[in-house]
């Protein structure tokens, strides 16, 4: 795996997101309501909107511009207007570091 450091575990608050760039790819690092950390593509598939500026609720992130929600585990849109998923990347917690493998996105079913 080619995981690299994205941020520290404490850098992201519960039910919040932050944007990082790894290998030229914009990633939203998201901590859901249970404290699990996810890494998804930061750009909404409905428009060129940064998802990390959106709202996190339970295990979803909502685009602030048009209201599409994306499942953090699968990247799949949960409502319109988006109908294409965003990529989801493997996350490894190594001590206080959040590592993300942007070279091997998770397969979407």
TrEMBL record:
InterPro entries: Rieske_2Fe-2S, Rieske_2Fe-2S_sf. Keywords: 2Fe-2S, Dioxygenase, Iron, Iron-sulfur, Metal-binding, Oxidoreductase. Residues 4-100 form the Rieske domain. Coiled coil: none annotated. It holds the Pfam family Rieske. It comes from the Bacteria. One of its GO terms (molecular function) is 2 iron, 2 sulfur cluster binding. This is 3-phenylpropionate/trans-cinnamate dioxygenase ferredoxin subunit. It comes from Agrococcus jenensis.
């Amino acid at each position: 795996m080619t995981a690299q450091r994205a941020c520290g575990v404490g850098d992201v608050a519960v039910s919040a997101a932050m944007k990082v760039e790894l290998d030229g790819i914009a990633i939203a690092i998201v901590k859901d309501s249970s404290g699990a950390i996810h890494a998804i593509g930061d750009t909404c598939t409905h428009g060129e909107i940064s998802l990390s500026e959106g709202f996190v609720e339970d295990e979803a992130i909502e685009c602030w511009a048009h209201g599409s929600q994306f499942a953090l585990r699968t990247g799949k849109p949960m409502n319109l207007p988006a109908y294409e998923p965003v990529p989801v990347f493997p996350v490894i917690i190594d001590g206080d570091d959040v590592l993300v493998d942007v070279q091997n996105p998770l397969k979407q079913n």
